[in-house]
Design goal:
Oligomer: single chain
Number of helices: 16
Order of helices and strands: HEHEHEHHHEEEHEHEHEEHHHHEHHH
Largest sheet: 6 strands, mixed
Distance between the termini: 67 Å
Strand order of the largest sheet: 7-6-8-5-9-11
Length: 344
């Protein structure tokens, strides 16, 4: 006769096997779901393989009942429209730059204020953890999955920019509405263009400079039209990965749990990290003849910090208008950045 402890182990193993079989049976009964995922960056952009790996893990975890197809390069719609595409079901998941629609997402806009983020990996964890308290309020038309940022970007221009006064009279394509407000406050003119449209704007002389992360400059061919690169972590662009609400609500409880398990801070980091590495490596790619990468002196950097400081007050007013507390929001963001070792 086997010892009681062995019998208990066998019983536990049998129960576990039964539970697993029951779970597989439940999954098999789930109605198959196919997700349309939309990404407006080019097919070769490092974000796309990360999103595909994320979808593959969802397929595995759902027992094959949740499949997905990724549509890159604005195949389903323009970059500016991706939030509404998720809202309206044109895409089931969409990659959104909230800053492409000035004034629509005022709380999230605080994350693109200058001189906040030191890096993208910790910064992604920080912004995702922070924004979860606001997403249901500010992005109520969609099912929020996660937020992330790229590695800090800067000015890339046809001429050398060292001081805030250099912006006066320049035409600049800003990454976000917050950076656009900064450009305007310094006497520049904003030229609106999505990332895929940016090179054309610069090539035609419609814009003199762009705010962009480093690795994406050669990816989008912008290195052919700009030569000067300010080596300072000026800003990051916040992004969100959001889902159509009806698509989520139509899923089974088990399928919803799979989605929920993949809409976490940990997954935000997994998805964003390869892109972070890619952008960081852009410093080396641009260190070539015909390009000048230059650092700012302490005095120049201080001048920039002073010049952009009023932008936070302007942002705060926009947040008050939607009934939120800007001080609480900014203090919370800075605490999250400190927690994840991503604060400047």
């Amino acid at each position: 006769m086997k010892p009681p402890r062995t019998l208990l182990r066998l019983a536990a193993a049998a129960l576990a096997a039964a539970a697993a079989a029951l779970a597989l049976s439940a999954q098999a009964q789930d109605k198959p779901v196919m997700l349309k995922m939309s990404s407006w960056v080019p097919a070769q952009h490092p974000l796309n393989p990360s999103l595909q790996a994320w979808a593959e893990d969802i397929k595995r975890a759902s027992g094959g009942t949740i499949g997905a197809t990724l549509f890159p390069s604005e195949q389903l719609g323009k970059a500016f429209d991706h939030y509404d595409m998720a809202r309206d079901g044109i895409a089931d998941f969409a990659y959104v730059n909230p800053g492409y629609q000035p004034g629509r997402f005022p709380i999230m806009a605080g994350a693109s204020l200058p001189f906040l983020f030191a890096n993208a990996k910790g910064g992604t964890a920080a912004i995702d953890a922070w924004y979860r308290q606001y997403a249901a309020q500010e992005m109520k038309d969609v099912h929020f999955c996660f937020a992330f940022v790229h590695d800090p970007g800067t000015f890339h221009a046809r001429k050398k920019i060292t001081l805030p006064t250099d912006i006066k009279g320049m035409k600049i394509r800003p990454a976000t509405s917050t950076i656009g407000n900064m450009v305007t406050s310094l006497g520049g003119t904003n030229v609106q263009a999505s990332a895929p449209e940016a090179r054309d704007m610069l090539e035609r002389g419609v814009a003199d400079a762009i705010t962009f992360p480093w690795g994406s400059i050669p990816l989008f061919g912008i290195d052919k039209v700009v030569n000067y690169h300010m080596d300072v972590p000026l800003y990051v662009t916040p992004f969100v990965w959001v889902m159509n609400k009806d698509k989520y609500n139509a899923m089974s409880a088990a399928q919803k749990k799979v989605i929920d398990d993949h809409c976490t801070t940990e997954w935000a980091e997994k998805v964003a990290s390869p892109w972070a590495d890619f952008e960081s490596a852009g410093h080396q790619k641009l260190a070539q003849p015909g390009h000048e990468i230059y650092k700012l002196t302490p005095e120049q950097l201080n001048a920039w910090r002073q010049a952009v400081a009023p932008g936070e007050a302007q942002w705060a007013e926009s947040v008050k208008k939607v009934g939120a507390d800007p001080k609480q929001a900014m203090d919370s963001l800075k605490a999250s950045l400190a927690k994840y070792k991503a604060a400047l």
